[in-house]
Design brief:
mainly alpha, elongated
Length: 60
């Protein structure tokens, strides 16, 4: 039990040292991630549709 308590005390101490992003930075990072995910979703959907149509064209 003592080891577990020591572990959590050290975790709290280390978490206080962490440099957390400011609100504006966090919003910018979130927008960047969401835009990137949206772009790649559309990109791979178009590629998948193109490959599907190509295979359908070849098999018919």
């Amino acid at each position: 039990m003592q080891r577990l308590t020591k572990f959590f005390r050290e975790v709290v101490r280390e978490m206080k040292k962490v440099s957390w992003p400011k609100r504006k930075e966090l919003v910018n990072y979130t927008i960047t991630v969401l835009a990137t995910v949206a772009f790649f979703t559309v990109f791979f959907a178009v590629v998948d549709l193109g490959i599907s149509e190509l295979i359908r064209f070849i098999l018919e």
